[in-house]
Amino acid sequence: MDEIELLSGVLSKTGDLVEGVGSGRLGAATPCEDYDVERLVDHLVGWLLLFEARCHGREFDADPARYRSGPDPAGEFRAAAAGLVAGWEKYGFDREVGVTGDGKLPAAMVLNMTLMEYTVHGWDLAVATGQPVPFTEKEAAEILARAEVTLPPQYRGEGMPFGDIVPVAEDAPAADRLAGFLGRDPAAWTR
To answer: What's the pTM value of the predicted model, to 2 decimals?
Structure first.
């Protein structure tokens, strides 16, 4: 699947999820134990702003973990998403890109991190707010395949960015299998 097409689709669908959050759901729990719905939306926007800046080779001096969205988080998300896609289109993938700190990573790895981040947190947001999980089977299967080669075991478990793999049936939707691979229990959240 073309990288730009895949990224555009994921970000567009995640933007729709952000827009679909009702104000009565902001305090609801999510599958990502660190965030309620409001903090998850802030996380999605804050990190997208960082990814967008770094894709363009710009510094991002704010702490994305402390970011708080304004009155139109969906608008903020969509603007940053458009900038990120434009940056990848302009500068391509044959380079290294910084994310945090001074180090740089291969662009393909940063893209895969972005895809995992916005698909699984999109899944979190969808199931926490009662919205349909919007990612196509093809998108989710492609991102799961990328995650399986991108995410090393040392980043899993207590105190790590990702939980242990939660077993999910092989015939489950690819988005649920991706959620399980990234440490979520789809059976606890999907109905």
So the answer is: 0.94
